[in-house]
Amino acid sequence: MERSLRGKVAVVGIGETRYYKHGQSPEPEFKLALMAILAAAADAGIDPSDIDSFASYSNDRNDPSRLAAALGTKELRLSNMQWGGGGGGGAAAVGNAAAAIITGQADIAVVYRALAQGQFQRFGRAAAGGTVSGDNALINPYGIFVPAQRFALKFMRYMHEHGVRREAMRAIAMASYHHAQSNPRAVMYGRPLTEEAYDTSRWIAEPYRLFDCCQENDGAAALILVSAERAKDFRHKPAYVLAAAQGSDHRNAARSFNAPDFASSSFGPVAPHLWEMAKLGPDDVDVLQSYENFTGGVLMSMAEHGFFKPEEANDFLTLENLLAPSGKLPLNTSGGNLAECYMHGLELQIEAVRQIRGQSTAQVPDVHVAGVIAGPMVTPVSTMIIGSQETL
Amino acid sequence: MTYLPPGLPAPVIENDGLDLPYWEGTRQGVLKVQRCGACNTWQWGPEWLCHHCRSWDMRWVQVEGKGRIWTWTRCWHPVHPALRDHGPYIAVLIELPHAGDIRMLGNLLGDPEQAVTIGASVEAVFEPHDDAPAPYTLVQWRRA
Q1: Is CATH 3.40.50 what the domain over B65-144 is classified as, yes or no?
Q2: Mutate to test the interface with A, among B93, B127, B140 (most CBs of A within 10 A)
């Protein structure tokens, strides 16, 4: 028996709330989660109470049992959480839901993520005072707390090893901001980024300047998945899951930054599983959404997926190559985490579905294969490929 | 005089005692890390088991406080209340070639705007925090 997700499950509904700057949502987080799920159900054309399965990641605070009670869920089946922080689990949550559907443990699944950071603590700011122990005791007393700082250490080394130039990082940031200018949902809609503004923006943690770093936002997003057999009965063109892979490399979480391959996005051993399951390679991808926590993470993710060799990054990552509709590999076509919304990457999954449907605000012509790389540099990470009916 | 201002979180020994020898050592100006008694693999940070041979015989051995800069970052954005208005500071990840290339984080003492070179040699400096409720000593680094 071939062990694969390929073509067996499809995304048939997508939904999101309005996206806000962090702390500015007028709604509490749980209500945002419900709003996104209802929007995805409406997009799919299903009764929300028929959703029987829930999958999320990054310790989302909105428990499926409470969601099911609130939604009037007729029967709760799968209640799934992908371990690990950051946005690393975004594609894994889709893969987990798809695996449950294929194996008869779920029928209609929703993958969701909600964040209201006014109600809860921000990712990019540490709490005051107190004591720390374990790995944090070896890190926090030196002023290293947040992802921007931890992941600066990774990319500084990677730049040193591979001769990466700042212009490559700038092209990634510029592509997201460029695409956001045609997307009214984007928080940075109407706020274009110039090369000069990028180059003169303040340092956060070298080598990251302000525009190398994602936003922090409030909002929620959701996707509805069903089996491929049922998917044809829904109102929108199905986006079939062709592959998903999750994991990280050898001893990635070794304390005190002792991962052997520390200067990486953690996709080294994960990406080959993706291509094998998809029966595709990097050249087959028509449009790519790649999670920008920091531009350096996108660069390493793309290299580890084989879109270019590390030494080719400076040549591949030009703005022209990354823009819809006609660039070599259009990247983050909704504006992504940098400029649409930091919905912990789930907005990237939705954008990939829109590209397959032909509904993007920065549509690439004739998309059949869309890639989504979830949050890099954490552990575990995850990645997925979706495709049109023609790819089956 | 400490490199960073007061008010950052104070390190405490893990409640299972795993890292006790490290923190006791730094108080005495001694840098101790783990080495497997069975296969001699160096291990940092501490763990109960040797990742190479799965022996439980993890020993604490003193190592010379010398190394080289493996990677670094200069932090400008104050992410913690104690760092507000402080200005930039440098964190370095130091590789210890004489101890199996294990790495440990610290600050690079001196001018916070100095040029930093990957591969540069550094030596350890013990930075006591005697006024903390549970006094501790950090290991910092300066160019050798």
Answers
A1: no
A2: B93
